[in-house]
Design a protein that fits this description.
With 168 residues, the chain is mainly alpha-helical. The protein contains 4 helices and 3 strands.
């Protein structure tokens, strides 16, 4: 796929997803007081949490979190540039989700010092839309990678000709 087309897809999807994530954080932060139980018994709750760590609160209060996030984004962009001829549209979309989620969370870290999380499901750590983008993007990317790697490996395995080994 042409690099210009790849970055056009990433830009369009990125703007939409980042706006959705940032808008949801602003609305929840400004218009919700404590927490709202959407589904009873702590199944789904909207709550306010400032996450200073990485994913799910890991590595709290580490200044390297922004740097690590930026390094991961750079690695993804380098992968896109190196693999541009092999990338399919679905893979570009998966990578767009990962990049958008990463950028949106980096925006929070830079301007607010922490990532604002608000979705709580059961006993799972609190998260936001950007986290959903990242997780879903990675899951779909890995599934696609494994699927097509298996197909490539299968295509490279030589077929054994049993007729050559039989005595006449």
């Amino acid at each position: 796929m042409e690099l210009k087309k790849i970055f056009k897809i990433i830009t369009i999807i990125g703007i939409i997803l980042i706006l959705l994530d940032q808008t949801s954080k602003i609305l929840i932060n400004n218009y919700m007081e404590k927490e709202m139980k959407i589904i009873p018994n702590n199944i789904l709750t909207i709550t306010k949490v400032e996450n200073e760590g990485m994913a799910f609160g890991l590595n709290k209060q580490n200044i390297g979190n922004i740097g690590l996030s930026v390094i991961i984004l750079i690695v993804i962009f380098n992968y896109i540039i190196a693999q541009k001829d092999r990338l399919t549209k679905p893979v570009v979309i998966y990578l767009s989700f990962i990049i958008s989620g990463g950028i949106s969370n980096v925006i929070d870290r830079i301007f607010k010092g922490a990532v604002f999380d608000f979705i709580k499901i059961g006993s799972f750590p609190v998260f936001n839309f950007a986290d959903i983008y990242i997780v879903c993007g990675w899951i779909l990317f890995v599934i696609n990678f494994v699927k097509y790697t298996a197909i490539d490996i299968k295509a490279e395995i030589p077929v054994k000709d049993n007729n050559k080994n039989k005595r006449k």
